[in-house]
Amino acid sequence: MATPTPRVQVPRSATRGEVIEIKTLIEHPMETGLRLDSNGEVIPRKIINEFICRYNGEVVFRTDLHEAVAANPFISFSLRVTTSGRLDFIWNEDFGAVYALNHTLLVD
Asked: How is the chain split into domains, by residue range?
């Protein structure tokens, strides 16, 4: 399997107090452990089980993901911005793999 590729879409800048939309996507097969390969062997479970967004170190969005989530999970949420700072996006996979991106947001 190729390394999962995370992507985010965040405005470059915003006005203090503005509510912005943040869109995230990670290219990941989200194997449930219920499918069989061409030899009849079970394909091991391997899913993104948690997504977290931190704004200047504070968790502002968190969700748990389960087997029923489709491949390439897309997550969109709103955030009221107050100051310029860093957004950290973290996807946690079964068995400890972590995929992360960050983005600097400028607030006028």
From this structure: 5-107
Distance CA 77, CA 97 (A): 24
| CATH code of the domain made up of 5-107 | 2.60.40.10
What does pTM read for this prediction? 0.92
Q: What are the structure tokens assigned to 97, written together?
A: 């793999």
Q: Where are the beta strands (DSSP E) in 1-108?
A: 5-9, 13-14, 19-27, 48-55, 58-64, 74-80, 85-93, 98-107
Structure tokens at 75: 């997550």
pLDDT digits (tens, 9 = 90+) for 2-29: 789 999 999 989 999 999 999 999 999 9
pLDDT of residue 71 exceeding 70: yes
